[in-house]
Design brief:
It is a single chain. By secondary structure, the protein is an alpha+beta fold. The chain is 19% helix and 44% strand. The protein has two domains: 117 residues, 2,3-Dihydroxybiphenyl 1,2-Dioxygenase, domain 1 (Roll); 114 residues, 2,3-Dihydroxybiphenyl 1,2-Dioxygenase, domain 1 (Roll). The protein contains five helices and 16 strands. It has an eight-stranded mixed sheet, with helices on one face. A hairpin with a 5-residue loop joins strand 7 and strand 8. It is globular, with a radius of gyration of 17 Å.
Length: 257
């Protein structure tokens, strides 16, 4: 089994204005940006400390026509994406895009869990570009959070699909349980039943910054919105949950001061 199995290896923004989004995230998070050079595709790579973290591109017209809106999507490494897509259907999920090859990059599919949250399982060609550590320095994706349609059902789906296991569970009072999940014994993120005010289930990704208040200021200065925070989380760090100028939700985590 691949050492990357079940781990997030890429983060991709599908947006309505790629040029504006590139400028916003470059200024807000400090990512280095460059064109991927893929023939016939306009795809911008996002890097931190010289290492690629993710990419962004304009929403395809057929996705917009189907009601798609700007948002981030995570890629999870699997040994055999065709088998994973078939297993997702067996577990009650939906395959929105059948397994497809990206020359020189890998083979991926677009799936949704039984409640509608979307992910991309992927069998990378060679070593994935993204760091495989669950935490990292500024610009890295350091937390992955599912606001699920229903926690127990969602956890069963992802456990059956990727082999994720339960880590610590936090009692959030009226908000329910915040269930952390682990990959090969390392905690990579968490799930909880979404609050009623959240329109639909989705994955939210947290990117590291040097100083949370300064970064929050850059979000609003760049035309984004702060939806929640800054609020303290375990470990003495602070998070803000945001939306970018095109409406895609994302989050930042970093120290205060």
């Amino acid at each position: 089994m691949s050492v990357t199995n079940g781990k997030f290896v890429w983060y991709e923004l599908m947006t309505s204005d790629a040029a504006a989004a590139t400028a916003f995230y470059r200024d807000t998070i400090g990512w280095e940006t460059r064109d991927s050079g893929m023939p016939g595709v306009s795809y911008t790579l996002l890097a931190a400390g010289g290492r690629d973290v993710g990419g962004l591109m304009t929403l395809p017209e057929h996705v917009v026509a189907a009601g798609g809106r700007p948002g981030w999507i995570g890629y999870v490494a699997v040994p055999d994406v065709d088998r994973t897509a078939a297993r997702a259907k067996e577990l009650g999920g939906t395959v929105h895009r059948a397994p497809t090859d990206i020359p020189g990059v890998g083979r991926f599919a677009v799936i949704a869990d039984p409640h509608g949250a979307v992910l991309c399982p992927m069998t990378p060609a060679g070593e994935p570009r993204s760091p495989l550590q669950p935490m990292g320095g500024p610009g890295s994706a350091v937390w992955r959070e599912l606001l699920a349609g229903e926690l127990d059902g969602a956890f069963g789906f992802y456990s059956g699909l990727f082999g994720w296991t339960k880590a610590e569970a936090m009692d959030m009072g009226p908000m329910g349980t915040y269930q952390l999940f682990a990959v090969d014994g390392e905690t990579w993120g968490a799930m909880m039943t979404k609050p009623p005010a959240v329109p639909g289930p989705f994955w939210q990704y947290y990117f590291a910054v040097d100083a949370i208040d300064a970064a929050a200021g850059r979000v609003t200065a760049g035309g984004g919105q702060i939806l929640n925070g800054p609020m303290e989380v375990p470990g003495g760090m602070y998070v803000v949950q945001c939306s970018d100028p095109q409406g895609a939700p994302f989050a930042l985590v970093g120290p205060r001061g």
